[in-house]
Amino acid sequence: MSAPTQRRNPFLGRMPLPERNYIADALRTETVGGVLLLAAAVAALIWANTLGGSYEAVRGFHLGPATLGLDLSVQHWAANGLLAVFFFVAGIELKRELVAGELRDPKAAALPVIAALCGMAMPAVVYFTVNSVGGGSLQGWAVPTATDIAFALAVLAVIGTSLPAALRAFLLTLAVVDDLFAILIIAVFFTSTLNFLALGLAAVGLVIFYLLLRKGVRGWYVYVPLALVIWALMENSGVHATIAGVAMGLMLRCTRREGETRSPGEHIEHLVRPLSAGFAVPLFALFSAGVSISGGAVHDVFTRPETLGVVLGLVVGKTLGIFGGTWLAARFTRAELNPELAWPDVFALASLAGIGFTVSLLIGELAFSGNPVLTDEIKASVLIGSLLAAVFAGILLKLRNAEYKKLCEEEERDEDQDGIPDIYELDNPEYHLRMAAIHEAKAAEHRRLAEVAAGRHAGDDGPA
Questions:
Q1: What are the residues facing 9 on neighbouring strands?
Q2: 10: which strand partners?
Q3: Sequence-separated contacts (24+) of 347-350 with Cβ below 8 Å
Q4: CA–CA separation, 102 vs 170, rounded Å?
Q5: What element of type H or E holds 40?
Q6: Is the pLDDT assigned to residue 160 strictly greater than 90?
Q7: Is this model's pTM higher than 0.85 or not?
Q8: How many CA atoms lie less than 13 Å away from 429 in the CB half-sphere?
Q9: At 370, phi and psi to the nearest 5?
Q10: Cα–Cα distance between 315 and 47 in angstroms, integer?
């Protein structure tokens, strides 16, 4: 008697309904924010290449109390202030994924985590290789490691491509893990000289923030002023100020208690995400993406090792890293791909993750802060690399768009109109009774219409 074969775990299969609904809501907001982000980037490019003097004057304008160490340029406020809101949301997303989402089960989390790590390591390897051979600076190794989920979803919206829920969830999980390691990279590799007094006071502020949360204290008028103080102290400490946003996001409770329809973390994320996606990130893009794009500048992007390393890291490194990491992880964890999908779908998704806009621009500014000319060239390479990745992914996804639409329609079908997609009710006897009643009612209506039509036809043929 042969030994029973070991059943493999499904990969990119159907998600639990609450998780699916949460992700659908989150991605809906990110898609709108992504379109605004795309519009802001285009506006920045037009502004910088038509009225460059006014653009530089506005983003270089300083404001803020100098006595508090906050006399910062508009560009600095956007990068360190507004992006703290973005990283606050990222912190909540990460916390939720760890306690209630795809990352709560170590076995299930292994595959997306490995894919994300490979998707960050391979671009860094590509950049390192190009600049080692070409004699360029190795400071920008982290620039092509980031994925911009909002920009990727904006591309999907613009080209009109649907993605099944499992692929969208996988993309979001990749982005969450990606954000975590981007945060660690910023904290470890781009921290200037430390002001230990300011850092210590920021830590005290975070402890107070945590204790207030655990005591159940409510009221935005308590937390918003405290958050601003913590951010200001972190800004003066030498640690990048966005770390404060992440830390506070991670402190929120993201598990539901009895009687709660959503956890405090989910509630606050629902309130703050539109502010992040619709205002903070687009405004950052407006004051960071404005670089001069000319024939000479584009030529330099493809000939200078630093910028070529960024482009190849985003387009080639991200795709090969995520796809290769996913394939190897699935092979060694015995995870079987959803039979409704194919490995080319994963490859297309990996190429879409090569769009590394927001965090890549931020890391580019940090990596080459002492060289404004190279900073602008690195930004141009991020724009061009993200554009190439978007075009490549768009072509691959369009090839399967008809199949994706069928899968999406099947996922959304709700014939009994009870608010729950039918695929989640197939094992529910009550669902089958409701569907039988619906089909019987439809059949009776068809019979009645047929009898009416037959009667009219008989009347037409009869004597006048």
A1: 335
A2: 336
A3: 347/319, 347/323, 347/396, 348/393, 348/396, 348/397, 348/400, 349/163, 349/167, 349/170, 349/171, 349/322, 349/393, 350/119, 350/318, 350/319, 350/320, 350/321, 350/322, 350/323, 350/326
A4: 9
A5: helix 17-50
A6: no
A7: no
A8: 0
A9: -85, 0
A10: 27
